[in-house]
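hey
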């Protein structure tokens, strides 16, 4: 019963967070692993119908280009919830997370610890709705890109790697097809191996019967 109320309360808080028109700021409540590795979560927002990816610009005061929505994971939410929240705050997109694409380490290393400064976890989100107003609408632009155009537009190389592993990537479709075909070939081989084994057992059984019949009639061929 306690778990039910806790989950309801947490869900209520999460819904309330996604409805406010103010983005979370500051890093005081953010999650750090091993004392110094900032945990960042984000999404690759996709439209499966149009086969496009939603990208955003950095904040107005930073250099131009396009990027994926992402931000710090805070200690009152799960990693996936953080990715959903950041995608809403930065891109105004709502939808369902379908998979964890992967985890990437920040290219910069903390000189004191020798560890990466941050770790990025990216999820794939199927966008169901784009809000007309969202927390960072005055600070960022958003735009849908075809897969190839998204790769060209992204300013961070590691984000290109992220997109290359999403469900819209041609390489992923090819690998799935190859995997499927390899399974079919394997299944055919297994089927023929099974049939061959059954035939061997059957003929061994017949040979045994034939031997007993001959032995009972005292007819020996050798």
């Amino acid at each position: 019963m306690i778990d039910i109320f806790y989950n309801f309360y947490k869900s209520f808080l999460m819904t309330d967070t996604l409805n406010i028109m103010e983005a979370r700021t500051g890093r005081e409540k953010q999650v750090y692993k091993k004392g110094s590795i900032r945990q960042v979560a984000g999404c690759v927002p996709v439209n499966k119908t149009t086969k496009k990816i939603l990208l955003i610009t950095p904040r107005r005061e930073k250099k131009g280009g396009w990027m994926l929505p992402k931000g710090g994971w805070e200690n009152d939410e799960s990693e996936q919830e953080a990715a959903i929240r950041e995608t809403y705050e930065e891109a105004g997109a709502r939808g369902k997370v379908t998979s964890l694409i992967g985890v990437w380490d920040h290219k910069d290393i903390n000189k004191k610890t020798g560890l990466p400064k941050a770790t990025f976890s990216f999820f794939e989100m199927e966008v169901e709705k784009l809000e007309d107003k969202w927390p960072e609408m005055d600070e960022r632009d958003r735009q849908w890109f075809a897969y190839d155009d998204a790769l060209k537009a992204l300013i961070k190389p590691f984000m290109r790697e992220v997109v290359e592993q999403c469900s819209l990537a041609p390489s992923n479709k090819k690998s799935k097809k190859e995997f499927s075909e390899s399974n079919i070939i394997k299944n055919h081989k297994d089927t023929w191996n099974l049939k061959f084994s059954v035939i061997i057992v059957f003929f061994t059984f017949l040979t045994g019967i034939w031997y007993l019949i001959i032995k009972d009639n005292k007819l020996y061929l050798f």
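Residues 170-216 form the longest helix (47 residues). DSSP finds five helices and seven strands in the chain.
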